[in-house]
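no rush on this but wanted to send it before i forget. theres a chain ive been looking at and ive put its sequence and its fold in token form underneath. i want to understand how the tokens follow from the sequence so walk me through it. thanks a lot i owe you, the record is right below:
>
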Amino acid sequence: MTFQREKQSVSASDLLAALADGEDIQLTGCTITGVLDVNRLFDPAEKFRTEALVVRSAEKTRLLTFAQSMVFDKCIFEENVVFTGPWSEPESVTVQFESDVIFNSSVFKAQTRFRNALFQGTAGFDGCTFVGVVTFKNAVFAKDAKFRTVVCEGYSLFGSAVFNASARFANTLFAKGANFGDVRFMGPVDFGGVYSSSRAVPVYDSVFFGRQNYGEDESFWRFVKQSAQEAGYYHLAGECFYSERCAGLWQKLRGPAYDNLPPAKKLMRFVLAIRLLPEFIFGRMLFGYGERPARVLAASALIILFCAVIFSLPNSLVYHNGIATDASFFRGLYFSTITFTTLGYGDLYPDPGGFCRVVAMVEAVAGGCLMALFVVCLAKRFSRG
């Protein structure tokens, strides 16, 4: 049986009764009045028929399973929508949706709570508007989760949620911020065009991306970066920029539709990825995309010390009058430093007949490049904002 209505006013009590009877839900353009709270099903005073409900009870919790499909297209929920336990005991009820649950283009005028919910089918919230607080904390999405072009006017809680398939948040507005702490994104992720209008930086502590080596986290870090920059947290914005660029490098490496390619074409992609080697070595590892100046200093120190060892060998250096120097690490370090910095006092020269001249040339070029990179790093970090 199907509970089907179109452009009508439907009471939450009638809807709960249909859910308790196991009927499929098909509402289009309807207005749901009253509190849609599954906890009412367990209240003896409400007198719902619950013989068809699938409920498994443990010591302090209930697992309530809805096997039917639910479609709420362009509906308006006037009051709270609660598919979890009450505020005082949020862990007391877990709701499991075995079929697709679609709320596309619906408006939730009060609180919306799907805490601990288990979505076994597609969870569709495309185009929805959440006026109050919305929570999907600890929710598990087994299939696609669609939150595209959603407007969240209140605070949004996704903490500790698990997205086992794709998570699509493209062009969504988090007006008062969002919490993605401890969230696990196991599949493809899309945060393209997501923004926050209140300069609230989203919480992302311990967020995990199962496909990080595919670059799936690039759009997420771009969202956090933009929010941090607008809020004036420029150091955080720089760290997110670094994560974004690292993810972008992985995307360039694998390319589009990588999983669908035959093994031969996957191998060819990796062979052609040799063109990314300069960006990987200099952009990411050495330069840190402008966010890791300490790496430039460390590389400079290593080059100076390595060349100092070579210049401290016997007969590696000569004085300006042509007399060879004795072996001395300090003298080698001195010459290596002035060569790296392209200072060159002229009191010492590399041996004309040895390979030290080649070492000196390479060190001078490396020194000029690394000093320029260091200046760029500092300018980028201190001029941001």
The chain has two domains: 2-274, 293-383. The longest strand covers residues 2-6.
